[in-house]
Amino acid sequence: MAQSLPDLAGLREALRAATSVVALTGAGISAESGVPTFRGAGGLWRNYSAQQLATPEAFARDPRLVWEWYDWRRSVIHRAQPNAGHRALAELERRIVAARGRFTLVTQNVDGLHQRAGSRNVLKLHGDIWVVRCSDCGLAECNEEVPLKQLPPHCSCGGILRPGVVWFGEGLPAKAWERASEASVRAQIVMVVGTSAAVYPAAGLAELGRGAGAKLAIINPEPTPLDVLADWVLNAKAGEILSGIL
Ligand code: OAD
pLDDT for 74-116, tens place per residue? Predict the structure, then answer.
């Protein structure tokens, strides 16, 4: 189903007037950069097992296997460039901030493409694939080596380093979650872009914002469970819709 033009124009008008906006993004916003999504056609979880690759138990069992998968994803992301959708959100932030408003980008993505596109106020709910963390001493540092020389990589303390991402069964970074919740509650508009809204608590931010009075916009070529709550449902690619909004 194509988006209706009044929806796009309505969202554009509402954004022009808004002084507090949250964008919640997922893997779909990076799809146009060539980074695979997790669910849906071509999604990673169709061919790979989340249980065997993205849980603390999987890492304890076979750190090398988990790292092989993350090393491959790092190489895909390393080759990728931010797309029109990432750039449009960075531009939207600049405009809202220039008008003394607040813009918070909450992302479930670990790829860093929002920051590379120029977004400033980014809350990373699921961590960062370019950070490694020691499973023994807890030291966290940026590591952009592609491919990694050693699998699994080791810390100077001798411990095994893990990807600095949030796995299934783990809690979200407390500070990022707190700031994302606060921003959602005070938002006038929450835009939900390129996420299946299947993973909680991240998807709950849209409901939190809506419950506190925000208008909700969904940008996704496919239907999502949040559509029933939305004021605008724009069924097309993020790059197309977001550049159209600007
Ligand atoms: P999903 O893979 O679940 O969903 C991607 C969404 O993007 C789908 O709803 C697609 O329809 C949509 N999509 C595809 N192409 C698009 C495009 N060009 N423009 C806009 N939307 C598009 O990804 P997430 O919702 O981000 O967590 O998944 C949430 C979490 O589940 C991830 O952070 C990851 C995953 O398992 C962990 O690994 C812990």
Answer: 999 999 999 999 999 999 999 999 999 999 999 999 999 999 9
Among 73, 196, 242, name the best residue to mutate to test ligand 1's pocket (greatest count of ligand atoms within 8 A of Cβ): 196
Which helix H or strand E contains 44, and what residues bound it?
A: helix 44-47
CATH superfamily ID and name for 37-79+128-165: SIR2/SIRT2 'Small Domain' (3.30.1600.10)
**What are the boundaries of each domain within the chain?**
1-35+82-126+172-246, 37-79+128-165
Q: Going along 32-159, which residue ranges are E strands?
A: 102-107, 122-124, 127-134, 140-142
CB atoms within 10 A of CB 69: 17
Does 126 qualify as catalytic in the annotation? yes
Residue nearest ligand 1's atom 9 by CA? 196
pTM of the full structure: 0.96
Is the CB of 237 inside a 6 Å radius of any atom of ligand 1?
Answer: yes
CB count in 10 Å sphere of residue 136: 12
Residue 103 phi/psi, 5-degree rounding, is: -130, 125
Return the CATH fold of 1-35+82-126+172-246. Answer: Rossmann fold (3.40.50)
Distances (CA, A) of 199 to 1, 17, 209, 241: 24, 31, 17, 23
**Atom from ligand 1 closest to the CA of residue 25:** 26
Ligand 1 pocket, mutate which of 3, 25, 38 (most atoms under 8 A from CB): 38
Closest C-alpha residue for ligand 1 atom 10: 28
Q: Whose CA is nearest to atom 14 of ligand 1?
A: 28
